[in-house]
Amino acid sequence: MENIAGIIRAMYCGFIDSLKGAMVLFYMDKQINERIHNSSFAGSDYRKKDTGTNQSPLKILKKPRESKILKRTIQCCALNGGIFWASILIFECGLLPFLKYLLTIIFGHSPGMGMIVWSWTKPFLSLTFGTVWVLPLFLLSRIVNSLWFQDIADSAYRYRQGRPLLLSSVSKLVADTLFSILVQALFLGQGMLVSRVPLPPIGELLALVHMCLLYALYAFEYKWFNMGWELHRRLTFIEGNWPYFVGFGLPLAVLTQLPNSYVISGCVFSILFPLFIVSGNEAQPVTGVCDCPLKLFSPVIAIANTLFNKTIGPANRQ
């Protein structure tokens, strides 16, 4: 009974911690920039006392870069919600109904002909809009979002932890990144696969747990990566303390599953995810409440290891 109570408490703490980013976001930037300003002012005052007033401008240290956490978050909302999502809504809820209405007016004397024309016009317009606008903007937003997410994560980490501790070598850094992307992609596929379990409640629940853990990994990975944690340590920590991370990823998993469109779901994720990056950076996960690790990442790690051994492995042995 105590174990169950500990699991519920850890899930609750994870859920609450995931929401803290929305509150921390609005004062974090101010505190970071005040700290930078005070340190820069103290440093410049020290240099004036040390070198006198004849110091060369070239020797003056550059001012540290100000934090842009709130700015980057607003930019994510503007790009993914104000431009991307809004354009899709305008097209689907404004332009298409308007064109259909025009066709009913033009072919008012022959409704059957109007429906035939519309049955050809709508797919053509949707395909053109998706190819010319949605797909390029979707790919562009993924690239821009990844850069902004990294900027948010680095600024938040420096605020709490200081200078990031990256992996020891460039080769290990690249290998860890590639392997992490592969594992996450396979884990996403595994989540889609378990959702097809014949018993609907069980399949949906398993898929939801997968998405909760995956989104928690997304949010905490920036922090752990800056701490110098390798992928196996990150995954082992999540599997061993899964109640907390299921609770942490639950809000984002539920909100991204509400839209029927994959593209709209991606917009929702990109709008909310900066808040979860900040939340993950601020959070202190609840550990040691469950003696049974949830080894959901083990199958995809085995598959990823096999793929790497068959591709990169032979090249390294030559």
UniProtKB/TrEMBL annotation:
Q: Which UniProt keywords apply?
A: Membrane, Transmembrane, Transmembrane helix
A GO-annotated cellular component: membrane
Asked whether the keyword Transmembrane is assigned, the reply is yes
User: TM segments?
Assistant: 6-28, 77-103, 123-144, 165-187, 207-225, 237-255, 261-278
Q: Where does the record place it?
A: Membrane
Q: Which GO terms describe its biological process?
A: macroautophagy
Look up and give the membrane topology term.
Multi-pass membrane protein
Keyword Nucleus belongs to the record: no
Q: Which family does it belong to?
A: Belongs to the EI24 family.
Q: What is this protein called?
A: Etoposide-induced protein 2.4
What organism does this protein naturally occur in?
Microctonus hyperodae
